[in-house]
UniProtKB/TrEMBL annotation, chain A:
Species this chain originates from: Exobacillus caeni
Any Gene Ontology biological process: amino acid transport
PANTHER family hit by this protein: LEUCINE-SPECIFIC-BINDING PROTEIN, PERIPLASMIC BINDING PROTEIN OF ABC TRANSPORTER FOR NATURAL AMINO ACIDS
Organism phylogeny: Bacteria, Bacillati, Bacillota, Bacilli, Bacillales
Pfam families: Peripla_BP_6
Signal peptide residues on this chain, from the entry's feature table: 1-22
InterPro entries noted in UniProt: BCAA_transport, Leu-bd, Leu_Ile_Val-bd, Peripla_BP_I
PROSITE patterns noted in UniProt: PROKAR_LIPOPROTEIN
Name of this chain's protein: Branched-chain amino acid ABC transporter substrate-binding protein
TrEMBL record, chain B:
Protein name: Branched-chain amino acid ABC transporter permease
Sequence intervals crossing the membrane: 12-33, 63-82, 94-116, 136-160, 190-215, 227-251, 263-280
Alphabetical UniProt keywords: Amino-acid transport, Cell inner membrane, Cell membrane, Membrane, Transmembrane, Transmembrane helix, Transport
Source taxonomy: Bacteria, Bacillati, Bacillota, Bacilli, Bacillales
One Pfam family, short name: BPD_transp_2
Localisation: Cell membrane
Length: 386, 294
């Protein structure tokens, strides 16, 4: 027996090693060097892009850089600003994001930076950019405290703390909600902060919280938690989950006979939910900055152009990047030069900018101010929630 | 409510038990832990997804295909990762363990490649059939899972204790060389063990897909670790132990959600295992001197 215990110990040691070495690899890629000479009268500037282009989250980086490139192409055609994009890969890692930023700021001498992809990356890159006086704008960083890093840090991605209250409010209005149950993933910073917001909103609105249940990433069986929730008979379920877990939760809930609507956070907002849960996904309410089905010429043009260029539907990340590029180009045009401070000031003054996400302004901290769109899944499709 | 939760716990426990049976069988005969078992289980689940969702074929066929594919995977595991290392001089007793870890990484990435990283749905109308008794809803899936778990355990026990092949297998477990000297075809017996254990993993995979509608390439790791914990709890190499251990873990995980904090679900379940092991270090059904088994 002792022998096999030793064996087990070594297994766990090995597993730990495996986990530690699980993520690695990733090279720097630089591209998109459209070396056109500046057109007459156009303000030319160099803009650095830090994005997650290799590894597990490469899909995000691809959508973001696609959105940026598409916007930049249009901006060039308009001829007022001539921006050269210099793209660096962060591989989703803090240290690589930081070294990419340093390279962009010091050797490439860029006027501004767009990116990085993750909030955790922004937490290290932001202070560095702020220190060097380089305006930096995240297009996908939604965690709390990002614009507060410094005067030079902006974002055009609406934080969950704004999106969730919008969806809960609308749900209360429509369904006359009095009692809610909360279910959230307690081993993930993102879903945990979504839970904090949900709890706060529920308390502010005077809703009775019947029960709070948790789950862990990759869990398959939610029956125990859902049975408990079912027996408390809530009017609404607030569920802070990523779509992979969230879709399964909805599926198991519907099978169990829980037919009340769900309000989810940003991580729940994905067409994958419908793919995984099918009919069971009906009744999910999410607030999102981006809705491709919006009845707006600008939005439909963007969707058509994006599809033509890249052969797939643009997602939220592509749309946010696209608008981010325009916001920056707008600021560069207003600044009239590639001076970093002038661009920062112009960016901070942005107000009522009409993008594909809606009307956007920056508040004094550099955070985005906009009205999110509240969507619900009905008959297997995301639709406006009214 | 308590009854419903009890049924939830039994369902989860039965699935754990079937996964653990696969581990315990291989450990009993070969004295190694098959780290690829969780991933073979995951492949079984994905076969279910392919058959029921992608191809829209009946569930019964999913069982057949899953069993066939996982049995084949088990065969390859034995031929490519285990047999070349067996009985050679200078090969550490940990070597087959490491090679199964290699196989598990390979299989996980293969699934990643074929099926994508996300969750895949499992379409079957069967999982919606339920019976209402008073205020308690029981699903056909839950009954089927429990029944299959019990059947597998009874069948396996019967096979091991009463049939000739089962006796030969136990002889191999007792002492491989002695069994070989007495005319048991040990090569065949070992291959059969690994194949049967893998096929059981495949069955468990389909059951998980049916019950929870949640299939991902990473599910093998979680399930695998739970299976490992269960065989330690139940006693290494013990069939009854795997069954009892699985049910204990499933029920305790569910009951923790009912009476306490769902956040401590795993923690308390594993603390319970540690406590049981302190009282009975050889596991619930383990033998006191397993050293003699090798």
């Amino acid at each position: 027996m002792r022998k096999s215990y030793k064996g087990l110990l070594s297994i766990f040691a090995i597993m730990a090693l495996l986990l530690a070495s699980a993520c690695s690899g990733g090279n720097e890629t630089s591209g998109d060097q459209s070396g056109d000479a500046a057109k007459d009268g156009a303000v030319s500037a160099k803009v650095g892009v830090i994005s997650w282009l290799t590894g597990a989250g490469a899909g995000y980086g691809e959508a973001i850089t696609n959105g940026l490139k598409l916007a930049n192409k249009e901006i060039k055609e308009q001829g007022k600003v001539d921006i050269e994009l210099i793209t660096e890969d962060s591989a989703g890692k803090q240290e690589q994001a930081l070294s990419s930023a340093q390279k962009l700021m010091n050797s490439e001498n860029v006027s501004a930076i767009i990116g990085p992809t993750l909030s955790t990356e922004m937490k290290v890159v932001g202070p560095e950019a702020d220190l060097n006086g380089v305006p930096i704008m995240g297009t996908s960083t939604t965690a709390a405290g990002i614009p507060q890093i410094g005067d030079y840090v902006f974002r055009d991605s609406i934080p969950e703390s704004l999106a969730i209250p919008a969806s809960i409010e609308k749900a209360i209005e429509k369904y006359d909600v009095k009692k809610v149950a909360i279910l959230y993933g307690n081993d993930d910073v993102f879903t945990k902060s979504g839970y904090d917001t949900m709890k706060k909103v529920a308390e502010d609105k005077g809703l009775e919280i019947l029960t709070t249940e948790t789950f862990q990433k990759g869990q398959a069986d939610y029956n125990a938690q859902l049975t408990k929730i079912k027996n408390t008979q809530p009017d609404l379920i607030l569920c802070s989950a990523l779509y992979n877990e969230g879709a399964v939760i909805m599926d198991q809930a519907r099978k169990m006979g829980i037919d009340v609507p769900f309000v989810g956070g940003n991580g729940f907002n994905s067409p994958e939910v419908i793919k995984i849960a099918g009919d069971a996904a009906d009744g999910l309410i999410v607030a999102t900055p981006w809705f491709a089905g919006k009845d707006d010429q600008k939005v439909q043009d963007f969707v058509a152009k994006y599809k033509e260029e890249y052969g797939k539907e643009p997602d939220q990340f592509a749309a946010q990047a696209y608008d981010g590029m325009y916001l920056l180009a707008n600021a560069i045009e207003k600044a009239g030069s590639d001076d970093r401070d002038a661009i920062r000031d112009a960016l901070a003054e942005t107000e009522g900018f009409e993008g594909i996400l809606g009307e956007m302004s920056f508040d004094e901290e550099g955070d985005i101010v906009m009205e999110p769109t509240v969507l619900t899944i009905k008959e297997g499709k995301f639709q406006l929630f009214e | 409510m308590i009854l419903e939760q009890l049924i939830n716990g039994l369902t989860l426990g039965s699935i754990y038990a079937i996964v653990a049976l696969g581990y315990t069988l291989v450990f009993g005969v070969l004295g190694i832990i098959n780290m690829a078992h969780g991933e073979i289980f995951m492949f079984g689940a994905f076969m279910g997804v392919v058959i029921t969702h992608t191809l829209q074929l009946p569930l019964a066929l999913a069982f057949v295909v899953a069993i066939a594919v996982t049995a084949l995977l088990g065969l390859f595991l034995e031929l490519l990762a285990l047999r070349p290392l067996r009985g050679k001089k200078g090969v550490s007793h940990l070597a087959p363990l490491i090679s199964t870890i290699g196989v598990s990484i390979f299989l996980e990435n293969l699934a990643h490649h074929f099926f994508g990283a996300g969750n895949r749905p499992f379409n079957t109308s069967f999982s919606e059939i339920s019976v209402q008794i008073g205020s308690v809803t029981i699903y056909a899936v839950q009954l089927v899972i429990f029944a299959i778990a019990v059947l597998l355990m009874v069948g396996l026990s019967f096979w091991l204790s009463k049939t000739k092949a089962g006796k030969a297998l136990r002889a191999c477990a007792e002492n491989l060389e002695a069994a070989s000297l007495l005319g048991v075809n040990t090569k065949k017996m070992i291959m059969m063990t690994v194949v049967i254990a893998s096929a059981m993993g495949g069955i468990a995979g389909i059951l998980v897909g049916m019950a929870f509608n949640s299939v991902t390439p990473q599910m093998g790791l979680t399930m695998g670790l739970k299976g490992l914990a269960i065989i330690i709890l139940g006693g290494m190499g013990s069939v009854r132990g795997a069954m009892a251990g699985g049910l204990i873990l499933g029920l305790s995980e569910t009951m923790i959600v009912v009476f306490g904090e769902s956040g401590y679900r795993d923690a308390i379940a594993f603390i319970a295992i540690i406590v049981i092991l302190l009282v009975r270090p050889q596991g619930l059904f383990g033998q006191a001197a397993p050293e003699a088994r090798r």
